[in-house]
Amino acid sequence: MTHVVTDACIRCKYTDCVEVCPVDCFHEGPLFLVIDPDECIDCAVCVPECPVNAIYAEADMPAEEAAFLEINARLAREWPVLIKAHEPLPDAEQWKDVKNKLPGLDP
Prior knowledge:
single chain; about 110 residues; alpha+beta; Alpha-Beta Plaits; two-stranded antiparallel ribbon; two-stranded antiparallel sheet; about 20% helix
């Protein structure tokens, strides 16, 4: 099993989760983060660190977020590993409560 970064991370990119990850399974793209399912050890320490509640255990993921399982796996192979936290995107506060951000975004 793995943890999955979902829609709430898009256009925010808070990286609090990265600091606590013991296995460096986060990868960074231009507008959001993903978790490499092959590296994730399912420890769940990242879940409470996410200020926008974007991370779910695979088994607990809401049905409407199911596409993110494949998105995380695919993009983790393409994007670089992120091992250190940094500032969120400049307009993260504007986007943090927006729902359904995936349509129109080419992950």
